[in-house]
C-alpha cells in the first residue's frame, strides 16, 4: 500500500442534471477512499471529481435556454456539488474546468505538446458527435435516412469542416501497444484491455485538438484568436492538478465508465507520453446501469431514473449497498426498484435486526463493555481491485455467521448465569463492532452511530433501517 493514494472519477458534463451513472462512479471513488482510511489509516488518500463545463453541447444547451454558457454552468454546477456532498462523498477536490487555475493548466499542457513538436496546424473534415463530443472516422459511422450515426454509440453525427490544430496521436501507436501489452492489470476488467489492444491493431489517426467553429472552450490566446481547446484535451488535464501544492499524479486508480475508455486508454496516455509525464497506474472501466428497455440509462434515451427522487425515497447508503451488492463493478446492471427494495430488506433483516437484538439485550442486562479490539482481517485488497461485490459478499457472509452463532448461543436464555450471559453478549458486541467497521464504506452514517453507541455503552439505538412498503 503506497503512502499516498490518488483516485479520480471522470468530470461530468454540465449541460443537464446529474445522472445516476455520475453518482455511481463517484460513490465508488468514495468507497475506495473510505476503505483505505479504514484498513490503512496511515495512508493519505486523495479523491478528485468535478464537472466538465466546456464544449459544443454545453454551448448549444445554453443557447436553447437563452442563456450564456457561463450562466448555464453557474446554474448547474452546484447541482453536482450538492449531490455529492449530500451523498457523503469525501472528495478532496471538485474541479470546474471554467476556473482560472484549470484554464492555466490546460493551456500549459497544450503549450508543452506544441513546444515538443507534437502539434501541427491543418483542417479537420469529417464527422462529429455533439453528444459524445467526439470525432468519428467514416468507417465507424452508418447512414439511416440520410442521417449519419456513430457505430460505436449510435449518436447522431454532423459534418464539420474547420481549421484545427492536430496532435500527432498516430506517432504514439507503438508505445501505447507496448504499454498496454506489458503492464499487467493496467486496464481492468482484463477484457477491456484486450478491447483497446484490438482497436489499436488499426492505424490511429492524428487527433484534432482545437475547434474553430464555435467558441465555448478555453481560448488558445491572441496568436490563435479563433481556436478553443477541444473539450477532451481540456477535461483530461484536470487529473494533473495538485492538491493544495501536493503533486499526487500519477493516479493510482482512475475510475470511468466503459463508454469513455478509449479517451482514457489511448488519448490520455499518449498526451502524457508526449509531455514526458508518468502514466496512470490503473484504469477501471465499470459497466453501465441499464434501464427497463435494456439500454444504457441516459438522458437522451429518457430511460433513466431521477437520482434526486431515488435519494429522497431511500438514501445514499441504501443506493451504495444496492449498486455494489447487486452487480460486480465491471459488469452492466439492470436497474430495478424492486431489487433495490429487496436489497434494503436484506441488509435491514440481516444487519439491522442483529444490532437491534443484541443492543436490546445489552440494555436489558445493563451491559458495559470496553472498546472492542479491531480485527486484523483486512478487505483492502478487494477495494484496491474495485471488487466491491466480493468485499460485500464476505461481509454479508460474516453477518450471517454472527446471526447463526447468536441463535446457537442464545444469550437470552433464562438458565444462564450472569457471567455466562455477559460473556456471550460481550463476544457478540465485539463481532458486531468489527462487521460494522467493515460495512463503513457503504453505510458511513449508520455505522458511525453504531460504533459510537458501542463506545459509549449507549444501547438505546434508534432504528437503523425504517421499514419500507
Ligand atoms: N465529460 C466527460 C468525461 C471527461 S473525464 C476527463 C463525460 N461526461 S459524462 O457526463 O457523459 O459522464 C460520463 C460518465 O458518467 C461515465 O464514464 C460514467 O462514469 C457515468 N455514467 C453515465 N451514464 C452511465 C450509466 N448508465 N451507468 C453507469 N455509469 C454511467 O463523459
In short:
This protein is α/β, with parallel strands linked by helices. It has helices spanning 20-39, 56-64, 69-86, 100-115, 173-182, 190-199, 231-236, 261-274, 307-313, 316-326, 337-364, 380-384, 388-409, 418-439, 444-455, and strands spanning 4-13, 44-52, 93-96, 119-129, 134-136, 141-144, 147-150, 157-167, 187-188, 207-208, 210-211, 228-229, 253-257, 283-286, 289-290, 333-334.
Any overview of this molecule?
- Helix 11 runs parallel beside helix 13 and helix 11 (337-364) packs antiparallel against helix 14.
- The chain has helices spanning 20-39, 56-64, 69-86, 100-115, 173-182, 190-199, 231-236, 261-274, 307-313, 316-326, 337-364, 380-384, 388-409, 418-439, 444-455, and strands at 4-13, 44-52, 93-96, 119-129, 134-136, 141-144, 147-150, 157-167, 187-188, 207-208, 210-211, 228-229, 253-257, 283-286, 289-290, 333-334.
- It is built from 15 helices and 16 strands.
- The chain is of the alpha/beta class and 469 residues long.
- Bound molecules: 5'-O-[(L-methionyl)-sulphamoyl]adenosine.
Amino acid at each position: 500500500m503506497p503512502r499516498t493514494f490518488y483516485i479520480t472519477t471522470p468530470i461530468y458534463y454540465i449541460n443537464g442534471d446529474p445522472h445516476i451513472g455520475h453518482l455511481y462512479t463517484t460513490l465508488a471513488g468514495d468507497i475506495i477512499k473510505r476503505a483505505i482510511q479504514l484498513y490503512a489509516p496511515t495512508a493519505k488518500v486523495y479523491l478528485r471529481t468535478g464537472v466538465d463545463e466546456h464544449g459544443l453541447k454545453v454551448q448549444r444547451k445554453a443557447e436553447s435556454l437563452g442563456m450564456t454558457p457561463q450562466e448555464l454552468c453557474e446554474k448547474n454546477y452546484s447541482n453536482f456539488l450538492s449531490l455529492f456532498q449530500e451523498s457523503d462523498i469525501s472528495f478532496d477536490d471538485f474541479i470546474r474546468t471554467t476556473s482560472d487555475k484549470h484554464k492555466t493548466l490546460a493551456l500549459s499542457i497544450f503549450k508543452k505538446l506544441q513546444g515538443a513538436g507534437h502539434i501541427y496546424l491543418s483542417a479537420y473534415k469529417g464527422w462529429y458527435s455533439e453528444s459524445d463530443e467526439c470525432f468519428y472516422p467514416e468507417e465507424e459511422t452508418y447512414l439511416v435516412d440520410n442521417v449519419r450515426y456513430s457505430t460505436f454509440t449510435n449518436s447522431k453525427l454532423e459534418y464539420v469542416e474547420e481549421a484545427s490544430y492536430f496532435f500527432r496521436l498516430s506517432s504514439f501507436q507503438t508505445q501505447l501497444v507496448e504499454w498496454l501489452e506489458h503492464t499487467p492489470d493496467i486496464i481492468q476488467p482484463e477484457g477491456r484491455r484486450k478491447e483497446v489492444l484490438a482497436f489499436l491493431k488499426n492505424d490511429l489517426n492524428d487527433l484534432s485538438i482545437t475547434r474553430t467553429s464555435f467558441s465555448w472552450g478555453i481560448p488558445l490566446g491572441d496568436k490563435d484568436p479563433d481556436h478553443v481547446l477541444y473539450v477532451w484535451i481540456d477535461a483530461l488535464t484536470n487529473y494533473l492538478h495538485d492538491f493544495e501544492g501536493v503533486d499526487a499524479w500519477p493516479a493510482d486508480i482512475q475510475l470511468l465508465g466503459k463508454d469513455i475508455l478509449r479517451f482514457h486508454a489511448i488519448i490520455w496516455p499518449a498526451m502524457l507520453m508526449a509531455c514526458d509525464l508518468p502514466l496512470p497506474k490503473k484504469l477501471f472501466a465499470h459497466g453501465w446501469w441499464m434501464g427497463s428497455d435494456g439500454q444504457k440509462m441516459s438522458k437522451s434515451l429518457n430511460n433513466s431514473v431521477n437520482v434526486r427522487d431515488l435519494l429522497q425515497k431511500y438514501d445514499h447508503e441504501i443506493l451504495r449497498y444496492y449498486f455494489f451488492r447487486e452487480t460486480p463493478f465491471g459488469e452492466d446492471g439492470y436497474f430495478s426498484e424492486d431489487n433495490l427494495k429487496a436489497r434494503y430488506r436484506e441488509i435491514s433483516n440481516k444487519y439491522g435486526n442483529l444490532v437491534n437484538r443484541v443492543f436490546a439485550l445489552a440494555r436489558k442486562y445493563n451491559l458495559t463493555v470496553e472498546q472492542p479490539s479491531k480485527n486484523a482481517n483486512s478487505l483492502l485488497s478487494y477495494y484496491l481491485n474495485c471488487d466491491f461485490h466480493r468485499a460485500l459478499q464476505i461481509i454479508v457472509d460474516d453477518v450471517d455467521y454472527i446471526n447463526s452463532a447468536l441463535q446457537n448461543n442464545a444469550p437470552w436464555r433464562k438458565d444462564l448465569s450472569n457471567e455466562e450471559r455477559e460473556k456471550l453478549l460481550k463476544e457478540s458486541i465485539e463481532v458486531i463492532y468489527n462487521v460494522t467497521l467493515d460495512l463503513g464504506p457503504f453505510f458511513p452514517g449508520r455505522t458511525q452511530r453504531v460504533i459510537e453507541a458501542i463506545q459509549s455503552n449507549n444501547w438505546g439505538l434508534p432504528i437503523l433501517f425504517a421499514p419500507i412498503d
